[in-house]
What we know:
Blueprint: H1 2-36, E1 45-53, H2 65-68, H3 75-86, E2 91-101, H4 105-120, E3 124-129, H5 139-145, E4 150-154, H6 172-178, E5 181-187, H7 195-198, H8 204-229, H9 233-242, H10 247-253, E6 258-260, H11 265-273, E7 278-281, H12 282-286, E8 299-306, E9 308-310, H13 318-323, E10 324-326, H14 327-338, E11 343-352, H15 357-372, E12 377-386, H16 388-393, E13 398-401, E14 406-408, E15 412-418, H17 420-426, H18 450-475, H19 479-485, E16 490-492, H20 493-498, E17 504-505, H21 508-519, E18 528-531, H22 537-545, H23 553-581
Parallel strand pairs: 1-2, 1-7, 2-3, 3-4, 4-6, 8-11, 8-18, 9-10, 11-12, 12-13, 12-14, 13-17
Antiparallel strand pairs: 5-15, 14-16
Amino acid sequence: MKNKIRRFIKITFITLGAIFVFLLSLFAWLIFSGNSASVPVPNNAYLSLVVSGHVQEFHAEDSLSRIFEPQKHSLHHMLKSLEEAAADPRIKAAVLRLDDHDMGLGKIDTLRGALKKFKVSGKKVYIYADSFGENSGATQNYYLSAVADEIWLQNFGEVNLSGLGISVPFFKRLLDHIGVRANMYRRHEYKGAPEHLTLEKPSAEYQQEWVSLLDHMMKTIKASICIDRNIDEHLLEKALQMGSLTDEDALQMGFVDHITSLGSISQMMQEKFGEDIEGIAYLDYLDHFEDAHDTTQPHIAVLYMSGDIERDTGEYEADREASAILSFRMERAIRKIANNPNVKAFVIRIDSPGGSVLGTDPIFRALKYCGQKDKKIVASMSDVAASGGYWLASAADVIVAHPVTITGSIGTYGGKFDIENFSKIVGINWAEFATHESALDNSSAKPFSQAALKRVNRSLDITYKRFTEQVMQSRQMSAEEVDRVARGRVWTGEQALEKKLVDRLGGLDVALAEAHQFVGSEGKMLPVIYYPRLKKMSEFLSDALWGRGAGFEPVVRSFMRSMLAYIWFDVKSMVLQELRASGFSSSEPQARAAPMVIR
């Protein structure tokens, strides 16, 4: 019996070892084969870019996500590919295809700047679109396309230069109809977000905000299009009044240069640069280059903050982490950068409309901690850096915004919904029991009591006071100056510069130039490292079992843990069966395989 058990245990451990070695070999093969299968760059080539779907500021992939997940578009990768291609003699031009996408004006302005720099290197830029707004406005897309040497439009495509507009719903009548009341309070009259729930139509302040915002944005866009396309301002206004131009109208009026099709792009490029020219996708091209990643050497750090600012539960949630600024994770990342003596300057790239006060504060305090560590911070605003997004930016030594960035919104709001009237309609009676009066302040059974409302307003006053005091301190403004730009008002980046809320106009490149100035002459040669950075293979293999990751890694980790649990339970079951067969008894129930869990 003893020999049989020894033999069984020996065979089991040999099997486990073989499985472990096999898995290590498999992961190594997947990672290295995935990284080495690069598409060669032709000696006569053009860079092919596609702007489509969801375009993130920055997409940090895990080791296996590069192999198994669909390639994702990120603005960072587009900018990197254009920067490398500008200095590459093999790349003669860039062709950008425009499709439906979600880029805001800040990201569009950033890409416009990168395309202009590419042109300065002596290379051509061509932009193709099936249509500039099929049955919809597409002024933003044309704003991007105006920087091209030539704009190509598909046959039957349209150019819908219809200006900028927004449709905003107001839900008060609906809520009244179903017996729900929005008890929302704000600081102050220009903080328009609660109006969607508390009013039947926008207030005068709300209308003033949006009209001013859209007018300033449109003014910037029109001026750029006229300069880039050498189009008379009156002709552009005529096209805007027409709303929609057919392909022939657009060609005749000078808004596009060729009517063609997607399949004809290769032929057109061959006519311009020779029959041997080939296109290479920008993500394939980037396989030949790597971002700097050695954090043990002096460098400038760039940290991306994108999405709503939310409290961090501490649990791993891939979708939430990719679309939100989670307080604990972001605070930890910032403090890690602050404590790294090799980080000589720090750029934060913000694309956020704000969010939770409790989520914003620890991130803000971490940014202030950087100052204690003699780290200079430059804030770079993307599409939007408003409310909590501006609060974070105010921690920086220098703030850079695009002319069309939406920023400001210095204010706060809060409250609750109550279903008192709904309960009466459907026949619900509520019984309430509490040890103290304030215990049921947030109950949805009834509106705020006068005492509760007093507490809510006190909380809003404290938050607003701290917000404005921070702006006063960081922007060196008086209380009266801050009051004139705060109270919830929203500004474009260009307006914010006039109001002293930002220091410079420009994109991430301008922010990096400011960071280099902080470092001095040493900074001219410093590499830029982008966070969150990609994991090395050793980090991946460690995190796959015991760490935290994103994308594909939690799947691998859960699979490996479940597989090891399965093997352990199976071994345990066989040992118990052998013991029972030999006359040993056990009060332990029969072991079963653990279920496979995919997080």
